[in-house]
Amino acid sequence: MGGVQTEVEPAEVGLDQGRLERIDKHFARYVDRGRLAGWLITVSRHGKLAHVSTYGQRDLEAGLPVEPDTLWRIYSMTKPITSVAAMMLYEEGGFQLTDPVSRYIPSFADCRVFSGGSDIRYVTKPVTEPMRIWHLLTHTSGLTYGFHRAHPVDAIYRANGFEWGSPRNTDLAGVCELFASMPLLFQPGSEWNYSVSTDVLGRVVEVVSGQRLDEFFTERIFRPLGMTDTAFWAGPQEAGRLAALYSRGAEGKATRMDAIGKHALSEPVYLSGGGGLTSSAADYDRFAQMLLHRPDSPAGELDGVRLLSPRTVAYMTINHLPGNADLDSFGRPIYAESTFQGVGFGLGFAVQLNPAASKTLCSAGEFNWGGAASTTFWVDPAEQLTVSFFTQLMPSSVYPIRPQLRQLVYQALVD
What we know:
Blueprint: H1 17-32, E1 38-45, E2 48-59, E3 64-65, E4 71-73, H2 79-91, E5 112-117, E6 122-126, H3 133-138, H4 152-159, H5 172-181, H6 197-209, H7 213-225, E7 246-248, E8 254-256, H8 258-261, E9 278-280, H9 281-291, E10 301-302, E11 305-306, H10 310-316, H11 327-330, E12 343-345, E13 350-352, H12 355-358, E14 367-370, E15 376-380, E16 385-390, E17 393-394, H13 401-410
Parallel strand pairs: 7-17
Antiparallel strand pairs: 1-2, 1-16, 2-3, 4-9, 5-6, 7-8, 10-11, 12-13, 13-14, 14-15, 15-16
Helix pairs in contact: 1-13, 2-6, 5-6
């Protein structure tokens, strides 16, 4: 599909043009100071794109600018897509949220929980509650990520080849066998910890549907929604559109990361439902619009194509943490550039519970997630608003991009 472009004048949908320009000026400084190579921002209201802006380079070394059709590694913004895929199967009666994961991946029947020791010599105990599908959707499974570096189990993941990658020549089924063989961080359902849960959920999608994850995505989500730029890799014809990947180097300057970035240029063996996709702003905007509930187009549908019931989307985007807890009180501490206070978690999305507690201008009921290369998106049903930000800087915790983007977008709403 072509590049993303505006569809309506900002004033027609309650946005002030001069105030929108504050967003661009603020993030232009990130590029001018060498912190980011370049970025693309979209702001949509009432289902219409009212602000699309780009700045800087998609490839600093080659001098290639960010274009409306630039491709981006969206990493964990893959998770909401995998969660939608799972809930599409749920709507068809494919599983119950309370089903044990072992019903679909038998090796998870033998999970053990870390109870002491180090990553080299540790003690485990049996699970008291089986890992269930809803635990995967809410990151309360007890699984983890090697890159957290917060617990001995994280180190066990790294020792097994899981930090920013996975063991070579191991497919999704094989990776899930490895996850099942390592100890859990805690008893399933007892805490929240950001993890490979959505990768395991992707395997459940494969087992229930009888299709590879990429095939399911293409046939059931991408093709119906017209998301022609979204895939598990950027092939030879698309490689020139893919932005380069950067990290924070000396003096805060963006430093190229080809060792990790190059993985997006070849077809993967491991189809990561937790972080494997590349996409364009136009494509992801269509996905976000599908999730937005509007009076003329209830959530779950876009341009006559319905993926989910409005009630399913509403159910996915309420807080599912026990006792209506927020991530700050129920979650394991991981470093992030925005607070976990006043933020809950639904089925595949973070959910804003209390804007006052979050200390960031936003709306209760907003749902969102971001990716490891500092990308983010959110959907705000109360304001009929969707917003996305694309860049390629790892990790996402380097700069407070996400809270700053919120305060700048919401101050531009003037109706």
